[in-house]
Design goal:
six-stranded antiparallel β-sheet; two-stranded antiparallel sheet; 48% helix; 227 residues; single chain; globular; 8 helices; alpha+beta; Beta-Lactamase
Length: 227
């Protein structure tokens, strides 16, 4: 994007944008294309997230469990934390190179429409969940009553069997199960999902095999959350 493009998108005056892009380029977070003069992200941006990933011991503990589950069943397993109204992947293991469900670290998933987001909601205390509902309602407006009902159904599934299932809702060609991960003191909540494309992962497989296995490994992973 050019300075003009960024100014139009952000509604920040162009002189201010020019100073910002210059500074970010000097810091190594942006690069300027020699052909058209437009800016693009540089590899330096990745360094911003690296300290966070290193500071998450649970990520390293969870990875071996996730990889074993993914490789055994040819599914995709993801660990995520919340940022605003999205879940952000902090780790991902894919057991099938041809799968259509492949999102890398840093990918953002809607809380309201995904199993991993709804599982995260289930891990919250009642007061925290209500506050999040209010934020989601202001974003989704007319869609929110139906989305809230589905979130409540997912929470009921987790209370009843330990995991929730979302089938062809977040993406029409995928289905996943998810569980909340809650630290022993209740102060840290994350979530983990397991699933794949509809042609490779059946509802029965998710309900009878992957969901229970995910619930089991979640019990071990949660012990390291928040440490």
């Amino acid at each position: 994007m050019s300075n003009k493009d960024i100014a139009a998108l952000t509604r920040i005056p162009k002189p201010s944008i020019t100073r910002l892009t210059y500074t970010l380029t000097e810091m190594g977070y942006l690069e300027r294309n020699q052909h058209d003069g437009k800016y693009e992200l540089s590899a330096g941006v990745l360094s911003l997230g690296y300290p966070l990933l290193i500071a998450l011991p649970v990520r390293h503990v969870a990875h071996d469990y996730m990889a074993e589950l993914a490789n055994t069943h040819g599914c995709t397993v993801a660990l995520a934390a919340r940022h605003r109204l999205s879940m952000v992947y902090v780790d991902e293991c894919c057991g099938n190179s041809s799968t259509t469900l492949r999102l890398d670290v840093g990918a953002r998933i809607e809380i309201a429409r995904s199993s991993i987001g709804r599982a995260w909601l289930a891990g919250l205390g009642q007061e925290e969940r209500q506050l999040m509902y209010e934020q989601l309602e202001s974003t989704y407006t007319q869609e929110w009553p139906e989305l809230k009902a589905r979130a409540e159904e997912a929470i009921e599934q987790i209370n009843r069997r330990g995991f929730c299932l979302v089938d062809q809702e977040w993406r029409k060609d995928t289905r996943t199960v998810s569980i909340p991960l809650v630290s022993t003191d209740g102060n840290t909540v994350m979530a983990i999902s397991c699933g794949g494309p509809t042609f490779a992962v059946s509802v029965e497989m998710l309900e009878q095999t992957l969901g229970p296995r995910l619930r089991h490994i979640g019990e071990n992973i949660s012990l390291f959350l928040g440490k």
